[in-house]
Amino acid sequence: MNTPGSHRPDDPNDPPVSRPGWRGLDALRLEAEWQAQERALEQERRGLPLDPADSRLAEYRLIARALRTPAMESVPYDLAAQIVRHVEGTPAAGELLERWLLRVLATVFALAAIAVVGAYGAQWLPAFARMWPTLSPQSADWAGLLVGCLAVSLAWQGVVRLMRQDAEMPAGLA
Predict the structure, then answer these.
(1) Which pLDDT score is estimated for 174?
(2) What's the pTM value of the predicted model, to 2 decimals?
(3) Which residues contact 139 (CB under 8 A, 6 or more apart)?
(4) What residue spans of the chain are helical by DSSP H?
């Protein structure tokens, strides 16, 4: 049982009050919590009935009981292997049907798009040519500015990525 002073001074199992650095009202509150936990543990060990007047003690007893009770069902030793087999296994019939229907739908859509472009493409080309803007010398200046901004942005992203890699690298490997 954890009793104050029965362990080394920095033992985390000792009550907080016995540790150096704990003072004042906080120490009193922590000591009261410690004592409540110990009382709950002792009452739970003895199998005493719950006191309806002390809800905090009842909560600690519930925690002690839960920690003492083993899990209902243990996790299988090869759980990860079972999950991998399940994921890599053959898909269900509904999944196979859905995949094939999506492939058929994509093929029909592609064939329809090819047929429409073949039938009406000659009429669309002049319309698209009229929509294409005529480039002026000013537009070349703006395009150069856009390319420069993109280059600076990408360069900055590379610098940040390198700084992160240096920060994450262990001291012995740098």
Answers:
(1) 47
(2) 0.31
(3) 133
(4) 24-46, 55-68, 79-88, 93-131, 137-168
Amino acid at residue number 46: R
Q: Are 56 and 73 in contact (CB under 8 A)?
A: no
18 residue type, one letter: S
Give the number of residues written for the chain: 174
Distance between CA 43 and CA 63 in Å, rounded? 12
CA distances from 51 to 16, 55, 56, 171 (A): 26, 8, 10, 56
Tokens of 154: 């990408």
Q: What does the DSSP 8-state code read for residue 18?
A: G
Contact status, residue 46 vs residue 65, Cβ threshold 8 Å: no
Q: Which amino acid is at 59?
A: E
135-140-143 Cα angle (round to 5): 110
Q: What tens digit of pLDDT does each residue of 28-69 get? A: 888 888 998 898 888 888 888 887 888 888 888 888 888 888
Is the Cβ–Cβ distance between 76 and 82 less than 8 Å?
Answer: yes
Give 84's contacts (C-beta < 8 A, 6+ positions apart).
none
Distance CA 13, CA 129 (A): 81
Q: Which of 68, 87, 90, 71 is nearest to 79 (CA)?
A: 87
The CA-to-CA distance between both ends of the chain, in Å, stands at 47
